[in-house]
Design brief:
- The complex is a heterodimer of chains A (536) and B (169).
- Chain A is mostly helical.
- Chain A has 29 helices and 5 strands.
- Chain A folds into 4 domains: 84 residues, Roll (Ubiquitin-like (UB roll)), CATH 3.10.20.90; 219 residues, no CATH class; 128 residues, no CATH class; 51 residues, Orthogonal Bundle (Helicase, Ruva Protein, domain 3).
- In chain A, α18 crosses α29.
- Chain A starts with 16 loop residues before the first strand and ends with a helix.
- Chain B starts with a helix and ends with a helix.
- Chain B is globular and about 50 Å long.
- Helix content of chain B is 34%, strand content 17%.
- Chain B has 4 helices and 4 strands.
- Chain B is an alpha+beta fold and 169 residues long.
- Chains A and B meet through β3, β4, β5 and α2 of A and β1, β2 and α2 of B.
- Chain B: InterPro entries: Ub_conjugating_enzyme, UBC, UBQ-conjugating_AS, UBQ-conjugating_enzyme/RWD.
Chain lengths: 536, 169
Amino acid sequence: MGGGDADAGGEPAAAQATLHIRCTNGSKFAVRADLGATVGTFKAIVADSCDVPAPQQRLIYKGRILKDEQTLASYGVETDHTIHMVRGAAPPPASTAPAANQEPTTAAPASSPAAGLGGLLQNLGATGAAANSGGLGLFGSGLPELDHMQQQLAENPNLMREIMNMPLMQNLMNSPELIRSIIMNNPQMRELIDRNPDLAHVLNDPSIMRQTFEAVRNPELMREMMRNTDRAMSNIESSPEGFNMLRRMYETVQEPFLNATTMGSEGDRNSNPFAALLGNQGSNQARDSAANGTTTASDTTSGAPAPNTNPLPNPWGPNAGSAQGAARSPPATNTRSTTAGGPGGLGSADFGSTLGASGGGSDATFLTQVLQNPTMMQMMQNIMSNPQSMNQLLNMNPNVRNMMESNTQMREMIQNPEFIRQLTSPETLQQLISFQQSLMSQLGQQQTGQERTQSASGAGNVNLNTLMNMFSGLGAGGGLGVPNAPNVPPEELYATQLAQLQEMGFFDTQENIRALAATAGNVHAAVERLLGNMGQ
Amino acid sequence: MATTTTQASLLLQKQLRDLAKHPVDGFSAGLVDDSNVFEWQVTIIGPPDTLYDGGYFNAIMSFPQNYPNSPPSVRFTSEMWHPNVYPDGRVCISILHPPGEDPNGYELASERWTPVHTVESIVLSIISMLSSPNDESPANIEAAKEWREQREDFKKKVRRIVRKSQEMF
């Protein structure tokens, strides 16, 4: 770098400043100049260091363009500062200036389209939310009764699932004797069953009970069954004399049934250990068929341990269910649930559902009264405190023994004194009481539905619960007024049942008679039998 | 308030010294008046390989008292023809907009002003704006329309302002 010879004045060499020049092509060099010199003079000095002539030089310092007539000091130029130099337009044509390096930028204007996409996505989200709210409104306005029922089930979903999924409850479902003995403790229920033999047939069918508990456990299945029942009831009502038949069934069967369910039991009968046995024997004497004989033998076998076994399984329900965890439902049960899609299957399942709910209510009431009895409570505590006595008692019941053998964990659980103490704690009783209240609220809802129907006085617009109750009485009503003489031919004995099967769509009279004879007049069992044959 | 003023003043003076000693290609920045540190004068050299190549455009940067919490405003004092520069010379780019959500919905919140920006990053963004106009949210509708539909007319106008800026010397 030169420039020293440009100094023509008498200035001392130490007063000159070193300035840095930065060109547009990125090159950088330093020159020494007097700060008092004019910009024009300075450009001549710079021209000696690069190939740009002085007239084409454009000097920029601190955002200002340096004028030729000004001095460097007037612009505030100091030593070691940098001045930008760019090549300007020249009067004669010049060669193309070399391209400068473009510094990378931190901001990208092209990202504005991304902002637009963000807005579009927000709009899509809003549209989705609107669609969801619309759907919910449609569902709510369309089925108010179903929504209310669903809310009740949703209030205690875990409690209901735990109770239904525990092994003891599963074993109870497969044991019709226990269920019937519990229901027989209610005097009004016993009277009602005596007047309607078909109700006894429903209790004798384990598959109907299993379908009922499956529906109670699964809210989706319950909702679908209710929807199909509603459709079937509409079809029945639209046929000639259909509405009169529904009203007759309600007055004869459904109303006494609900009264029997909600009426409280007498305390002294519940505390009597032999009441169940007497009830069973009295009920069985009314039947004279071979099936009833077998039932009598089963009752006699399970009658002996009944006074001590009946109260025991239920207090363990919630904790045992939670301990066992996953549900155990056999595939056959699921298949039967699928079959319930048909009108006939729906009838039997829904009838069992109503009866199951009522039975549950009776069970809770009965259990509460038993636990409040000091003598029964003392006896239970004595049994629980002695593991050997507990084990011996459980082995006397064949069903309980089978369950104990198949599940070692269950046996160890029952023989653990601490676990037994936990079961008898107030928390467990509170859970049972809340479960009972949930069932009672459902029954109350049914009663409200009944009152609404009465106030309608013949109007066709009845609510869903009333329709379900009426349809559940369809099968039981068929047994009314039918004499039980053995000499009557099958056509006359099952005339009412045959008419019902015809209405359901089973037109083969001979096949219907065979099915009814095999099931002793149970319309629901006959329908399942007919559907099974068609399946083959 | 005094602390904020002192902080902003010190920050701007520091950035001024840094730019004087370590200049960045493409622009030169300094104070308009040595007694006011909140008014800067910037000379932007037209970026190479763009329509503005060869031009020298002067701009004034006005910094707020609460800088760097709020962005400065940039206004071209030279004649400028660009979709994102208002007819009165004000620059409209995303990083010069106040923080928060954009009421118009064109920009993301992350694109707007943040305190980490410096004079250097601001001017580099303006240089980038000269290279890549954004016609989706134009500040000068006429320029945006010309740039989109009549590119030749736009080029002629830009060449005219480039020559005019060169004659300033």
